[in-house]
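ok so I'm stuck.
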Amino acid sequence: MGTAKREYIVIAVLLTVAAGCANDVVSDGEESAPEECPELVWQGPGDSFIETLEVRSPADVESIPLYTRVEGNLVVEGVEGQVDLDFLRCIRQVTGGGRIKDNPDLVSLTGLEALVEIGGEDPSYNFVAVLDNDSLQNVEGLMSIESIGALSVERNASLTSLEGLGSLRSVDLITIGDNDSLSVIGLRSLESVGELYIGGLECPSDPSSPW
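replied:
not stuck anymore, here's the structure
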């Protein structure tokens, strides 16, 4: 290959790389867009021992920003109409408990994949409860949780599998009951369980429980 031809190829490659880099540069002095999930913490007004971020309507879903941490409980309850949990996709930590209840058209928990830590020093608020969601088919959004105080999955008529909890290794109390379509438990990583209730059993009454 001649020298001139080799030089032409090298120049062509350099121009291609330069063009690709140029596409990443924002013109007119504008700064690059920020990351989708910058640190953003929800804190309540401080009126209660533990605050609760409540989502109870489609309007709430639309208005909540992309929090990365919730200082307190997280509740999604009674939301009517088609809803998904994508608006929670940046949450990595909830310092209280989590309750997802009575959302008749909620099909999955997709949107909670970033959640890796739930609960704090008070064991009464170290729990996840998934209750009375008639259309819920799976819990795959909880795939990143490895340890929790209490897990309650009850009365979700369309739920077929708990394999979305496949990363769960340690839990003090599990209550699974009255999920009419449930055929696969699938807690394959579970190493430590304090108490386990499966079937139509109700969770034992606990006066210290917040709900």
